Amino acid sequence: MAFLPAGRISGASHAKLVRRFYRQWAASSQAVFHDGEKALHSPPARAAYKAAGTKCEKLPPYSPDLNPIENVWSLLDARLSATRPGGWEREKEFRARVRNAVSWVNANHSAALAKMVSSMPRRMRAVVEAKGAMTPY
Predict the structure, then answer these.
(1) pLDDT of 107-116, one tens digit each?
(2) Which of 5, 35, 97 is nearest to 105 (CA)?
(3) Is residue 82, in this structure, part of any structural domain at all?
(4) Is the pTM of this model over 0.70?
(5) Which residue range is the domain that position 14 belongs to?
């Protein structure tokens, strides 16, 4: 999970992130799954994933069983709630708190994050076997 700087992501900027951070984020993953954002599946991004030795796949639209990011949002939300200040906070402080929460989730839940990624092939098989109906995920 990454907290990206402000601005619009492009294929080139995503490829740069993949080249810089992929090994620490998900080096043991056989594939990375993204939604339909064009920049994430652009030729530069695909080339960066290929150079890193993995595939970049698209998540099917409207498939909650294939959307483990919701579990990650839950972890992040819990950390943000636990670190919420007693009063108002400025945007700069909030952004720093979000960055710290992302780092905390990555450091303290790496096994859970890896399990979410590694479960994707099983999730996909379950959805296909259920012909799109609900699954245990």
Answers:
(1) 999 888 888 8
(2) 97
(3) yes
(4) no
(5) 8-58
